[in-house]
Design brief:
The complex is a heterotrimer. By secondary structure, chain A is mainly alpha-helical. Chain A has eleven helices and no strands. Chain A has one domain. Chain A is globular and about 60 Å long. Chain C is mostly helical. The chains are: A mainly alpha, B alpha/beta, C mainly alpha.
Chain lengths: ~250, ~260, ~250
């Protein structure tokens, strides 16, 4: 009940924030701009709209995930609304989980809107619906959940802006993590191998299932979808537990 | 059910902490004994003692005024009582079952910009796990009590300072607490607002609710409080009834007594 | 007074911006050779990032082509650009075909052929690759074995799923060495039917050279092709081949 209360409050606060509206407008503008790019692509309108549209959704979703998640906890501490919350029988873990779930609900709403918009646009251009676009949108959502959880973890340790930057770095590193092990084999040093293995496990593997590439006809990697989803969920649970552990030790 | 709130939620992190299962004596709502709080400040983590052995006793049903110059440790004491901060040593014993029977208004409160007054109170009610029907009834009552019924559907970012203070009091009282802690409740209020807050405190007192508040407005303290404590430099240097203070006052008012104690 | 000065300053700045942009030197002479990053640089990126990069480079490839095809007619960097696009996105089949036909435009059929072979290796189930390879071998190769090579490509195409029925017929025609001009007309007609707008332009240019110039003879020749052209496309096919005829 208390987690739900914090989550609902977070959802209301974030969804009503004007900054979110501006970000969404920019994202929709980018998607529409892909129409223009598609018009100069020599017959590749379908591919261009889907690819650039999904890229726009990823980028703007990442901006929301990194910047809004970073300020979720920080803002409460800086504005001292934590005094209101923790003077009531709410535990630190209920607070962290509630914040995360509330932002996840916001992110789902935003991404659903953008993905459906892109789906309709692509249908209009291609003349037939592309169900894989909707699935790609869902997978982008899962990736961003992990980024949100990591950003919240960072925000319990450092300032909001630094936490946002680290969150974006996690996303970028997550797109490359499948290569970390192969890179380590290029070196001859045992230290490199150990470090690479550590990085491989610590950095979330965000590109194991690459449906964005599949939407435009390219092959992704071979991991099954369900296994990857389970991995992402496990990863973000670990990140949130770590965030709760650190936050529980904070004084206000 | 009455329980003691003890210190050190992070075992092993603090030292010299006395964990007590004792209840305060029957008439006490709050007993603070030997409270110390040290914080590490700055890049070199220099240790600063904020509380240097605070002893406080608040009786059940008191309207207790906690006075002191800025930086005396009043807000820190409240935060330790509420568990927002952990004491370095000392004990805190509360005569309530837990946070569900407490109400708290922080100093210069800030709330959620995009929630309406009613939504914010609904959030607070849910955090107390209040039953939905009871919650709505209390919201309607409390909004009426603080005079914010017309603004219940307005977002908090559009509230004036006085309105924010009143919604802050409303959220502190939504759960009908037995013990209310108010940090500078009169801040930012116009004279009408201050009168209304004083009336609220008086009504709470009449209902038997224990109230502890910080204030710099000594005339309000003299009018409302049954007992007071004066803090300076991290210690409670004087405690007693308002009558005792007035009797010992050079000019017969609380202000001169306060100045005498603080400067001694 | 201060407001007027501020407005005047803004007006001056707006004027400077507009004047500069309108008088900006025309785009520099297109550089026939542009810097094209090595595909290997991107190999560590995730597939979706590579696919998006391929699209970005595709747009710059088209722009490069547009700048040069009408001016200096040099497309020196185009093969590298197409290779970059297709390395990043190996199933981007249109890039191979575009690159191949562009190379034909600038008289580099061997490069066109190599691009299509690369595409076929990455997309072995796409019948269009062996079809066009056969077409290029037949049309642009020289030597005694070109028909046999073309026939082999068409035979490969005929075995792949989704190929139209005429592919097998063409393979047979080549194998039996039928009328070469007629075979060429049949092949270009199929290029017209199967290709995109760009390929159709190429096909119209080639058919214009192969078909009789006499209007009546041309009408007869085009009528013979009608069974091979989809009904919905035939009217446009006729219009394209009789442009300039009354």
């Amino acid at each position: 009940m208390r987690v739900a209360a914090v989550a609902l409050n977070t959802f209301r606060e974030t969804i009503r924030d004007r900054i979110l509206g501006v970000i969404i407008l920019f994202a929709l503008a980018m998607i529409v701009a892909s129409l223009w790019l598609a018009s100069i692509s020599l017959g590749q309108e379908d591919r261009m709209i889907k690819d650039f549209g999904l890229a726009a959704i990823s980028v703007f979703g990442l901006i929301v995930a990194a910047f809004v998640a970073a300020s979720l906890v920080r803002k409460e501490v800086e504005k001292r609304t934590v005094f209101i919350i923790f003077s009531k029988p709410v535990s630190r873990s209920e607070f962290i989980w509630g914040k995360f779930l509330g932002l996840a609900a916001t992110m789902l709403t935003v991404l659903t809107g953008m993905t459906v918009f892109l789906f309709a646009l692509a249908w209009m251009v291609a003349g037939s619906p592309s169900g894989s676009l909707l699935l790609a949108g869902l997978l982008i959502f899962l990736q961003l959940l992990v980024v949100m959880a990591m950003t919240m973890l960072f925000s319990t340790m450092t300032s909001a802006i630094l936490a946002s930057v680290w969150g974006i770095c996690v996303y970028a590193a997550g797109q490359l993590s499948h290569n970390v092990l192969s890179l380590s084999r290029l070196g001859h040093s045992e230290v490199t191998h150990v470090l690479s293995t550590a990085v491989f496990f610590v950095v979330p593997n965000l590109s194991a299932v690459d449906l964005r590439a599949a939407v435009v006809g390219e092959a992704g990697h071979g991991t099954t979808l369900l296994a990857w989803c389970a991995y992402l969920v496990a990863y973000l649970v670990i990140a949130l537990f770590a965030a709760t552990w650190i936050f529980a030790r904070k004084e206000f | 059910m009455r329980a003691a709130v003890t210190s050190a939620r992070a075992p092993g992190r603090e030292h010299d902490v006395t964990l007590t299962a004792d209840r305060p004596t029957t008439t006490r709502m709050l007993e603070v004994a030997g409270l110390h709080k040290t914080v590490a400040v700055g890049f070199r983590r220099r240790k600063v003692d904020i509380l240097k052995g605070v002893d406080l006793e608040v009786n059940d049903g008191d309207v207790f005024g906690l006075l002191g110059p800025n930086g005396a440790g009043k807000t820190t004491t409240l935060k330790v009582v509420l568990g927002l901060m952990r004491p370095t040593s000392g004990t805190v014993a509360l005569g309530v079952a837990g946070l569900s029977e407490l109400g708290y208004l922080p100093e210069n409160p800030y709330f959620y910009d995009y929630l309406t007054g009613a939504e914010f109170l609904r959030l607070c009610g849910r955090l107390f796990s209040m039953d939905a029907h009871e919650r709505e009834r209390r919201i309607a009552t409390i909004l009426d009590d603080v005079g914010l019924q017309p603004a219940a559907g307005v977002q908090l970012r559009k509230y004036s300072k006085g309105m924010l203070q009143r919604i802050g009091i409303a959220q502190a009282l939504i759960n009908e607490p037995r013990f209310v802690l108010l940090d500078e409740p009169m801040t930012g209020l116009d004279p009408i607002g201050r009168v209304e807050v004083k009336e609220i405190i008086q009504r709470l007192h009449e209902r038997g609710t224990t109230v502890l508040f910080n204030s710099h407005v000594l005339s309000d303290v003299a009018a409302l409080c049954t007992r007071i404590a004066i803090m300076r430099d991290g210690r409670a240097i004087w405690q007693g009834t308002v009558d005792e203070a007035l009797a010992a006052s050079p000019a017969g008012d609380l202000e001169s007594f306060f100045m005498k104690v603080v400067r001694s | 007074m201060r407001r007027l000065l501020a407005l005047a300053a803004v007006a001056v700045c707006v004027a400077v911006v507009i004047v500069y942009q309108t008088n900006r030197p025309a785009a520099a002479t297109p550089n026939p050779v542009v810097f094209v990053p090595s595909p290997g640089f991107y190999k560590n990126f995730s597939p979706s990032v590579r696919a998006t990069l391929a699209d970005v480079y595709w747009l710059s490839t088209i722009q490069y082509y547009g700048e040069h095809v009408k001016s200096d007619h040099r497309l020196d960097s185009l093969p590298a650009m197409v290779r970059l696009v297709t390395s990043l996105s190996p199933h981007f089949t249109e890039a191979y075909f575009f690159g191949a036909f562009s190379m034909i435009d600038v008289g580099r059929p061997a490069t066109a052929y190599a691009l299509l072979q690369q595409g076929y290796r990455a997309n072995p189930r796409d019948w269009r690759f062996p079809f066009y390879l056969g077409f290029f071998a037949y049309t642009y190769a020289s030597g005694a074995h070109k028909d046999a090579v073309a026939a082999q490509w068409y035979a490969d195409a005929a075995r792949l799923p989704g190929r139209p029925a005429f592919v097998a017929r063409l393979a047979a025609e080549l194998a039996t060495k039928g009328n070469e001009t007629q075979t060429a007309i049949d092949l270009w007609t199929q290029v017209y039917c199967q290709g995109d707008k760009y390929a159709r332009q190429k096909a119209v240019t080639a058919l214009d050279r192969l078909l009789p110039t006499d209007k009546v003879a041309r009408e007869k020749a085009v009528a013979r092709l009608e069974p091979a052209v989809p009904h919905a496309l035939f009217a446009q096919f006729v219009a394209d081949l009789f442009q300039g005829y009354n």
